[in-house]
Design brief:
Elements: H1 7-18, H2 23-59, E1 68-69, H3 72-81, H4 90-100, H5 102-108, H6 112-129, E2 136-149, E3 154-157, E4 163-172, E5 193-204, E6 206-208, H7 211-226, H8 235-240, E7 243-260, E8 266-280, E9 288-293, H9 302-361
Parallel strand pairs: 1-2, 5-8
Antiparallel strand pairs: 2-3, 2-7, 3-6, 4-5, 7-8, 8-9
Helix pairs in contact: 4-5
């Protein structure tokens, strides 16, 4: 059968060819559609990837630092980390052992020969580990607040406790009054507190707290207020009960030796950067009212830059002096060895001459 001579078949084929959506028409348009679909797909995937990346970044935990509590023991490590003490000073080594290894100190300090070896081991431990001793610490300062300010949404710090652009703080070890291996008061080289000088002034006169959290804080304090005797339930005692706790998180970077308080108490004088602070409504630090971090701020003040530069130069100079002293000692040892060898050689020569003289006589 000749299909091309069949009119019905020809009309049917022509009808299929002219219809939109038939194979010839689709083949003509398919490449353009595929390009558009690929481009759209790539943009969608790119947007999804960006969204997933941001989600992961948000979920990733921020780097956290461990801030040490200020104790007599932790201060003993800090003073070595800041090169405040002298490795050649036997008292500094002995008292480090007293603070950190009380049992060993009690058992062997009175035995000269035993303690001599222990002192060497203690000095070696300090030399090997002082660069690893912590520099980040935190300390707490109690404050008080007054009535809640609904317009500013926060509490004014009580006038007596306001901090106005202060750089210098006195901080004491939490175990200040405890006996350390039978010793009371300061231990030579190791004060029980610090005079901390910040690179930037710190200011705290107002505490921002949202209304919901402030309501919980006030309600908690009201419980204690209501337990007071009736004659003490007045505005004065109400404000006395509104205590807050400022926790300052700092990183120390230099030592300035020692300083004295107005009362004449000797303290370590150190330079520090305030990396952040937190304010709690309770001494147990369960109710966080406010916090702020300064670690994300890259720009340092001119004073901070100068202090860091001076500290690095001082540290570099001290290391150079120690290296020079060590090389000098080595040279002296070598000279002594050479002298000894020379004397030994001379002695051998003299002995040989004496033998030759004796043989000649014989």
């Amino acid at each position: 059968m000749n299909y091309f001579n069949n009119k019905r078949f020809l009309l049917f084929f022509l009808f299929l060819f002219m219809m939109p959506g038939t194979v010839p028409y689709v083949l003509a348009e398919e490449p353009a559609q595929e390009v558009e679909e690929v481009q759209d797909g790539q943009e969608v995937r790119k947007a999804e990837d960006e969204k997933e990346k941001k989600k992961q970044e948000a979920q990733e935990p921020k780097k956290k630092f461990l801030y040490e509590e200020i104790t007599v023991k932790s201060l003993s490590h800090l003073f070595w980390a800041l090169s405040k003490l002298d490795i050649k000073n036997q008292v500094h080594i002995d008292n480090f052992m007293l603070i950190n290894e009380c049992d060993i100190y009690k058992d062997y300090y009175s035995h000269d020969f035993e303690w001599r070896e222990i002192r060497k081991s203690g000095a070696a431990f300090i030399e090997d580990n002082k660069d690893l001793f912590p520099l980040r610490f935190e300390f707490m300062q109690p404050l008080k607040v007054t009535d809640y300010d609904f317009e500013k949404e926060g509490f004014d710090v009580a006038e007596k406790y306001k901090i106005y652009s202060t750089r210098r703080f006195e901080v004491f070890a939490t175990n200040l009054t405890e006996s350390i291996c039978g010793k009371q008061g300061n231990i030579a080289g190791y004060p029980r507190g610090l005079v901390v000088e910040f690179s930037r002034p710190f200011n705290l006169t107002f505490l921002p707290v949202n209304r919901e959290l402030a309501d919980i804080y006030i309600s908690n304090k009201l419980k204690y207020f209501q337990e007071l005797p009736a004659h003490q339930q007045n505005e004065q005692f109400m404000h006395e009960g509104r205590d807050i706790y400022l926790v300052m998180k700092v990183k120390f970077f230099a030592s300035r030796g020692e300083a004295r308080t107005r009362e004449g108490v000797g303290l370590g004088n150190v330079l520090a950067v305030l990396e952040g602070y937190e304010i709690y409504g309770d001494i147990e630090r369960k109710m966080l009212l406010y916090s702020e971090s300064f670690r994300s701020r890259k720009r340092k003040s001119k004073m901070e830059q100068d202090l860091i530069k001076k500290y690095q130069e001082s540290k570099k100079k001290k290391k150079a002096e120690e290296k020079s002293s060590l090389e000098s000692n080595q040279e002296e040892s070598e000279i002594q060895v050479q002298d000894s060898e020379a004397k030994a050689d001379q002695g051998a020569n003299d002995a040989e001459i004496e033998i030759q003289v004796q043989e000649a006589k014989d």
